[in-house]
């Protein structure tokens, strides 16, 4: 054990001397490993951070939540022209589902619209996501109120002119003033603010902080939400103790019968689950990771060749020293491990520099990205260290074998 510790110490000294005596050559060789480790770990850190923020955004939602609509939330084999002919899901569809499908804990009807302008006195906010939706969304999305309340079922069904604002939206409109009871103009009409959501932070898509909710029936008075109008969807949260597969089958069967579809006719709607959306996101994340590995792998390959090159040069420069060591009794494995350790140390130095650059980059990116947090996980740090060690081993094994097999007499003669 002491022999190998001494071997490690001597190899480390040789590596440091190589860094000192051949600064430019060593720098160029290590640059490949540094760039390769930086590229891979930076990509993995960015993708992991994106994945973590998306999962955090969806963590408060029931993954079994279903969106019944004419659109598919993921890839589908139904051609575009056929999907375009599907009828919109309207409020009558919502009423049918709510009253005839068993096992529903909460349901809501949502109208997908564009961005709106909100005005209060001299303040004007543009491109705001104002979602027309019935009050069931309060239970489905598990919304938390910071001030006031969400609109009631009665207000939802009668289309009362009320609105619930996200935290950031309310702050931008009213500053330090109490927003409850204030009247603002949306859709060119006056609505009364009855509630403000608590602060949520960053989320997938639009954060609740920047959204507003109004009763869907209020918007249906002046905007067509029927089969030829604005697209809509029925949002369903099944009860926790039911078989979700059986629930989907029941929903499809009853809705097909409601729409008069025959047994040989295809569905003219989609049943989308948030769990499917999560799986779709996971697939995208996997593809991004694969692309990152493919691109960064070329940098690592170049770095490996750089380490191998400097080790072959090092063997040639120290041929005479190797001959003297072997003539004094040094075994082949001693010479082998000496150069292997040196290659690994050089690669690890490059890898640690790359990890340090990624860490600095995540700190800078997090400071400029607001609520989006970039994270360099311990797993990625360990992966970077392991990869750099592996590159050192692979790059140094051939030069080390060549050095260990040198004939001591020929090595001394060549060195002279």
UniProtKB/TrEMBL annotation:
The keyword Transmembrane helix applies. Keywords: Cell membrane, Membrane, Transmembrane, Transmembrane helix. The chain crosses the membrane at residues 27-47, 293-313, 334-361, 381-401. This is ABC transporter permease. Its main location: membrane. Signal peptide: none annotated. It comes from the Bacteria. PANTHER family: ABC TRANSPORTER PERMEASE YTRF, MEMBRANE COMPONENT OF TRANSPORTER-RELATED. It is a multi-pass membrane protein. It is found in: Cell membrane. Residues 26-253 form the MacB-like periplasmic core domain. Residues 294-408 form the ABC3 transporter permease C-terminal domain. It comes from Winogradskyella litorisediminis. Belongs to the ABC-4 integral membrane protein family.
């Amino acid at each position: 054990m002491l022999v190998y510790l001494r071997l490690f110490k001597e190899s480390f000294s040789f590596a440091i001397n190589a860094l000192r005596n051949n600064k430019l050559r060593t720098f160029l060789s290590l640059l490949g490993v540094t760039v390769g480790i930086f590229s891979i770990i930076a990509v993995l850190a960015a993708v992991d951070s994106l994945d973590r923020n998306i999962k955090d955004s969806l963590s408060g939602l029931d993954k079994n939540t279903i969106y019944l609509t004419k659109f598919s939330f993921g890839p589908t084999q139904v051609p575009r022209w056929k999907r375009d002919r599907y009828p919109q899901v309207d409020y009558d569809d919502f009423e049918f589902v709510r009253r005839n499908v068993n096992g529903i804990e909460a349901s809501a009807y949502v109208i997908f619209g564009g961005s709106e302008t909100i005005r209060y006195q001299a303040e004007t906010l543009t491109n705001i996501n104002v979602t027309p939706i019935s009050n069931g969304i309060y239970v489905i999305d598990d919304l938390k109120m910071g001030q006031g309340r969400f609109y009631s079922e009665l207000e939802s069904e009668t289309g009362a002119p009320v609105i619930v604002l996200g935290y950031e939206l309310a702050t931008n409109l009213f500053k330090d003033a109490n927003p409850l009871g204030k009247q603002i103009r949306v859709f060119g009409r006056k609505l009364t603010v009855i509630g403000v959501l608590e602060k949520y932070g960053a989320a997938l898509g639009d954060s609740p902080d920047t959204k507003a909710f109004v009763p869907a029936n209020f918007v249906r008075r002046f905007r067509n939400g029927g089969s030829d109008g604005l697209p809509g969807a029925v949002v369903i949260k099944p009860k926790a103790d039911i078989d979700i597969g059986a629930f989907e089958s029941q929903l499809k069967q009853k809705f097909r019968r409601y729409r008069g579809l025959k047994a040989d006719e295809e569905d003219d709607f989609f049943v989308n689950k948030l769990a499917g959306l999560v799986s779709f996101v996971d697939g995208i994340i996997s593809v991004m990771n694969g692309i990152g590995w493919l691109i960064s792998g070329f940098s690592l390959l170049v770095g490996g060749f750089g380490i191998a090159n400097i080790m072959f040069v090092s063997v040639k420069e120290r041929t005479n020293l190797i001959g003297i060591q072997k003539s004094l009794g040094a075994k082949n494995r001693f010479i082998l491990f000496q150069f292997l350790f040196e290659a690994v140390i050089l690669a690890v130095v490059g890898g640690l520099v790359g990890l340090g650059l990624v860490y600095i980059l995540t700190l800078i990116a997090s400071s400029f990205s607001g609520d989006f947090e970039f994270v360099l996980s311990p797993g990625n740090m360990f992966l970077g260290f392991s990869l750099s060690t592996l590159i050192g081993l692979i790059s140094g094994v051939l030069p080390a074998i060549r050095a260990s097999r040198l004939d001591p007499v020929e090595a001394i003669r060549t060195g002279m």
